[in-house]
Design goal:
The chain is an all-alpha fold. 64% of the residues lie in helices and 3% in strands. It starts with a helix and ends in a 7-residue tail after the last helix.
Length: 266
């Protein structure tokens, strides 16, 4: 078939130009990686803001609860709930032994014994006994394991009310913050009253009244010096010492009994 000269001239040139233009084009830089980075940064920012907002909300709730408990007695604590849950896993009918009594109906012997055994600077510090913490660190270093605590009554109360057993930096930070709240919102008398009413004293036994009746068949108001000292030295590990109150612990109880008259209580 005969092609016209114009067609012959234009056809190849057009193809060449079209191919050259196509070959000369360069793909635009992909924006996708930059968009991914922006989205990642935005997601991280939103997540951090969410964590901060949640943290503030949680501690606002804790503070509100502490304000309420400054006038009204807590029915249950975090430790009570955890212990009851563990007990009911074995026995659905299990119940805690716990009975709240006011400060005036707890023997002064028990108050003094607990302060002597657990926190002899209780009325003077603002939640933390720095000398006691340093001594605990030194003892732990000598033993090569975290055996000694150094926690004040206020710190122990913060843990019992809101936290969980175990050791971690997160829990210690939470404990410290809640301790500061407790010390700023409650009197020393209220701190000791709540502590003595909620602390664990045996397997499912919480508070001074339940402990006095469980071990001695008497109310907490009637505890004498020797009985109070024995209860006080059980506090670091009450479920174990309920079963194993040996000569070493008895000797410790006697030392507490001899010095507890010097303990100052609110």
């Amino acid at each position: 078939m005969h092609r016209s000269p114009a067609a012959s001239a234009n056809g190849p040139n057009c193809a060449s130009r079209g191919g050259g233009e196509a070959a000369g084009r360069r793909p635009l830089p992909a924006a996708a990686p930059r968009n991914v980075v922006r989205r990642l940064i935005r997601w991280i920012g939103i997540t951090l803001l969410g964590v901060v907002a949640l943290t503030v909300l949680v501690h606002a709730v804790i503070m509100a609860q502490l304000i309420w408990w400054s006038r009204f007695d807590p029915a249950r604590t975090s430790f009570m709930e955890l212990r009851l849950e563990a007990m009911q896993a074995d026995d659905p009918d299990a119940r805690l032994a716990h009975r709240w009594v006011p400060y005036e109906r707890i023997s002064d012997h028990l108050k003094r014994a607990v302060v002597a055994a657990e926190d002899d600077k209780f009325v003077d510090h603002e939640g933390f006994d720095w000398e006691g913490i340093q001594r605990a660190i030194e003892r732990n270093q000598r033993r090569g394991r975290p055996a000694a605590g150094g926690s004040t009554i206020s710190q122990q109360l913060a843990k019992n009310l809101f936290l969980w057993p175990g050791k971690s930096y997160l829990r210690k930070a939470e404990e410290a913050l809640i301790t500061l709240m407790i010390e700023s919102l409650w009197s020393k008398r209220r701190i000791l009253e709540v502590y003595l009413n909620v602390v664990e004293w045996g397997d499912g036994v919480f508070g001074a009244e339940a402990a006095a009746r469980h071990y001695y068949r008497i109310p907490a108001a009637d505890l004498g010096p020797a009985e109070a000292a024995r209860l006080a030295v059980m506090l670091p590990n009450p479920r174990r010492y309920e079963r194993e109150f040996g000569p070493r612990l008895a000797a410790h109880a006697e030392r507490v009994r001899r010095r507890m008259h010097r303990s100052e209580i609110p």
